[in-house]
Amino acid sequence: MERRAQNDISRLAPPVTAFLGVGLCNREKLSAGLPIDVLGMLLAAEALAERKLVLVADAHAHTNGFGNGEVAAVANSVKRTLERVVANLGWSGWKIVLSSDLFQTQEFQGVLESVSHENPYVRAELADILFLERFEGANLKIGWALNGSRDSSEVFFDSLARENGSGMSFVYLKPGVTLESKAPRAPPYFCGNPETRIILKAGEEPGRKLSFGDNLDAAGNFLNGLVRMFGEIVERVPSGRLGERLSFVIGRCLCDV
């Protein structure tokens, strides 16, 4: 779970307000579940900031042509899961909102009208950063980055924000890891195939999934790091096989509040 930062975060004046976005789609499909990989972003925010803002990007999914009903179903499921994780882990200072709620405000529309980009999804992402910085006091954005690629991670959006006057600092975690070698890396919050990711859901079977993937070395390293991070920030994870430790983490995140 290595991190690299832009605009030295050690210089941020407390209280730090962190922002992270949770996307719901790629160009072809909506997410089929919320991967456990997203915990890396949540854990980093909890460790680094006093206030934490999570934006579930449902309005952005509409710009990719997905229907209102199907987007709402995915967005509400993701929001409920995130709220349950935060409640179960006893965290405070968290605010989880749908981007569609922000889009309805005059303030957000003013920011949106002040920026331009030919791609409406990119324009919305840029407006998110500028709006949350100006109206919510966000001064640290936690995202993910793929080494050597500017366009397939959040670095692209953040660079545009700086070009448009943002003074926010940025922390980047590694991308999520799938269990299949033909598509080994993915955004930590997006799942194209739930059989190739460990999902934050009741009844998930990490041990079973880890038994048949063909990207197990990379996935195992990533998931072991995630479990260690959970143990350092939340509580000790009992020893056992990786699948058992992942089941413990999922259980702690999703047990009845």
Q: What keywords describe this structure?
A:
257 residues, alpha/beta, Rossmann fold, six-stranded mixed β-sheet, two-stranded antiparallel sheet, 10 helices, 14% strand
Q: What multimeric state do the chains show?
A: single chain
Question: How would you name the CATH homologous superfamily?
Answer: HUPs
- Uncertain stretches: none
| Proportion in helices | 40-55%
Measure the end-to-end span.
Answer: 28 Å
**How many strands, which pairing sense, and closed or not: the largest β-sheet?**
6 strands, mixed
By CATH, the topology is Rossmann fold
Please give the CATH class.
Answer: Alpha Beta
Number of helices: 10
Count of beta strands: 8
CATH architect. name: 3-Layer(aba) Sandwich
Order of helices and strands: EEHEHHEHHHEHEEEHHH
The radius of gyration over CA amounts to 18 Å
Give me the secondary-structure category.
alpha/beta
Strand order, largest beta sheet? 1-6-5-2-3-4
Please, how many domains? 1
General form: globular
Mean pLDDT: 91
Question: Percent of residues in beta strands?
Answer: 5-15%
